[in-house]
Structure formats: structure tokens, C-alpha cells
Specification:
The protein is α+β, with helices and mostly antiparallel strands. It is built from 15 helices and 12 strands. The chain is globular, with a radius of gyration of 20 Å. It starts with 8 loop residues before the first helix and ends with a strand. InterPro entries: Thiolase (IPR002155), Thiolase-like (IPR016039), Thiolase-like_sf_Thiolase (IPR050215), Thiolase_C (IPR020617), Thiolase_N (IPR020616).
Amino acid sequence: MFRLTSLPFKTIHRTASTVASSSGRAQLLQRRDDDVVITFAKRTAMGRAKKGQFKDVPVDELLHALFKATLDKTKLNPASIDDICVGTCHPPSPLYVSRAAALAAGIPESVPISTVNRLCSSGLMAISLGVAVGAESMSLNPRPTPVVADAVSANPQARDCIQPMGWTSEMVAQTYDISRQKQDEYALTSHTRAVKALSDYPHEIRGNVVSVDDTIRSNVSAEGLAALKPSFPEWGSASTTAGNASGVGDGAALCILTTRARAEAEGFDILAKFVGTAIVGVEPRHMGIAPIYAIPKVLEQTGLNQQDIDVYEINEAFASQFAYCAEQLMIPMDRINPNGGSIALTHPLGMTGVRQVVTGLEELRRRNGDFLCTSMCVGSGLGAAGIFVNERRS
């Protein structure tokens, strides 16, 4: 029986980081029976919030379709699943709806499930042994306005950490002098790359096969971006627009993880090895710059350096923060989001952490590279990053 034996997420993180930091790249490329490996990684297409193909589809229905498609594709005995973790942010009663979706898909009542909410990094946080999912319907569950007590909001950082994300974009642009022109240039790169890399992600929803992201715009130009009005004229330099910020959207993504020994014993393909993650905190009003700190931290923990990474998937919450991160990190742009990022694709909060892994591993396979680093800024002033090793070398 294919057991996806569970291990607490923090234990995986400590074990992977401790081993890697002592030996670095060569150590990570070695294969051990107790490695945590990914045997399956897929996503649904994404939909534009309130206007797109999933505007009326709740999170439980997205999860149900993804669970069913996964079981059908992998032929995995659902009773052999030891644990499921779903990263999702804003649906009410997330554990109830996730559990219901799993049961309806044919996963037996003996399989436990949990949900995790660390905002934009929720999907990455869900990645541990077992079935890891990221899902969000921003059409039906938009970001609620946080409300805190007067005694809490009297603290300036506490007040900053609950502000709208558009405000944080403007604070980054203003503080670090990121011009509107520069933001539009980075946005155009994202849009152009996404159009060239447009792929099919077929899943059946309500009897129809949905295959293509309806969020990608094929006619974006520098002139069109420059003509857009500011989305937040009341804040900062008013340089954030609908064209240089990530869209709100809907979708789901999934990875199956187990030990190498079990995957080999059961004859499952191994796509990649999961090494570990790092989490950081930053000034809440400058939330977007967190990858500058999260990426070096995860590299140090794993004994890698920046040049070891073949592909970076750094979430494009806003062009303001993405431009600053890319330039401060000094990573060649051909290694960052080569298939476009969230500015073009959209950013369903809970989905993104897993979506980046699916996208990044496919690009690693195409490049015949070794290492993927994913990273994102996280609402309230956090950041996260993860390291994965390609095992589909030609």
C-alpha cells in the first residue's frame, strides 16, 4: 500500500535545512531513502475574479474537481493517503469545506485533513508529506477588511499590517523610488512572457473541460500600460495600476509528496525533491520587499548560493515590489519567472505557493536544471521561500 506517511512540517524543515547547510549543493543532489519527494504536481487553469470562468465556482468545488482528477490520473489508492493539507485564505469554514470536498471525491473518512492560512504563502506552507493543495476563490471570498481593537491599532506597525495591499505597493514605490515607468516595464515583461508560454491545464468543472487561464491578456503594450489610470490615487506616488499589479483570481493546485523509499517501492515517478522553506518578517508597510530576506535565508539554510538556482519563481504581487526585489537580489531576469508571473497570470492567494512549484518544476525540466527557488511576500509583513531539486534530468 502506498503510504504517504505524515511528518510535522517543522520537522521536515529542520531536518532538510540541517543536512543541507553542512554540505550544500553536492549533498542536495545526492539521493537518500528518506528524502521528501514530489510524485505529482498539477494545477487547474486560473480564472479572473468576478468575471472569469470560475466566478461562480466555490473553493469546495474547485477542490473536489482537483481531487477527482488527481486520483484518476495517478491511480493512487485514496485509502493510502495519510494526510492532506490545504492552503487557503478567505473562504469561511475552510476545514469543513476542504474535508467535504475530499470525501465527495472518494477519499475515505480515515484520511485526515488540515488547512493553513499564511496569506500569500499558504500553498507553500501546505507542502509537507502527503497531499498538499493551494486553492482560492477570490470571486466568492474576497479579502475581508481586518478590524482590530483601538488598543491594538494605536501601535503604528499594528495599524500598518492590516492596511490594504495596494497601500503597501505605494509605500514601497514611494520609499524606494520605484517609478511608474519602471513598474510598467517589468509588468510588460510578465505579460509578454505569459502570452508566449500559454499552456493547457485541463480539468472538468460542471461537465465542461476548462483548460486555459482566462487571465492572460494577449494585447498588452507599453503604450497601453502607460495609459492606465492609477488604481490608488489617494496613496503614495499613485503608480500602481491594473496593468502592473497582480490580478485577483480563482484556481487550485496540488502536489503529492512521500518518501523516496516509498515512491520507488510503489513505482511512482519522482518529479523533484523538496528541500525546505524559510520564513521571515519585515516592516509591514514594506511587505513587498520580503523576498530580499527570505531568499538569502533559505539559501543559507540549504548551503546553496544564488548562482546555484536555475529557476526562480518570485511572486509578482505588484510591479513596485517585484522590481525592487529583482534589482536588489541582482538575479538575471532570464532566471526569474520565465513564463510570466502573477501580474499576467493572477494571484489566487492560497493557490500561488503551489502554483509556483508546478510552474517552476516544469521549467526546470525544460532547462534540464537542478534547483528551483520559490518566494513571495506575504500580507501583514512576512515573506517565504522554498527550495526544490529537479529529478527529471535528460
